[in-house]
Amino acid sequence: MENMEQIPQKQGNNPIEAIDALRDAVEKLPEEQRQAFVLARYQELNYGEIAKICNCSLSAVKMRVHRALKTVTESLTAQLASYSK
């Protein structure tokens, strides 16, 4: 893959730290986003099933999952950047 050398590496990367960072990022999400994100990514439900569970529209589920993914990505990116300092 191109530009792989640009990805900062923390000395002694610990998979447990990565899991903890992901868990922390997900726990900080607003409740509606967290619920939709967990159902989509961890329970592997489709958006229609999530809409029924959350009693909301399909477009609301898509928005919640999208915003959650963006927030989690930003959080993990910030943590990764802090490793390179």
Explain the overall architecture.
There is one protein chain. The protein has four helices and no strands. It is mostly helical and 85 residues long. The longest helix has 26 residues. The radius of gyration is 15 Å and the shape is elongated. The N terminus is likely disordered.
Could you give a quick summary of the protein structure above?
The chain is an all-alpha fold. It has 4 helices and no strands. 68% of the residues lie in helices and 0% in strands.
Strand content: under 5%
Counting copies of identical and different chains, the oligomeric state is single chain
Distance between the termini: 24 Å
What is the CATH architecture descriptor of the domain at 31-85?
Answer: Orthogonal Bundle
The share of residues in helices is 55-70%
Biggest pleated sheet: none
Order of helices and strands: HHHH
| CATH overall fold name of the domain at 31-85 | Arc Repressor Mutant, subunit A
> Taking Cα atoms only, what radius of gyration do you get, to the nearest Å?
15 Å
Tell me the number of strands. 0
Structural class: mainly alpha
Low-confidence stretches: 1-12
Topology:
Elements: H1 15-27, H2 31-41, H3 47-54, H4 58-83
Helix pairs in contact: 1-4, 2-4, 3-4
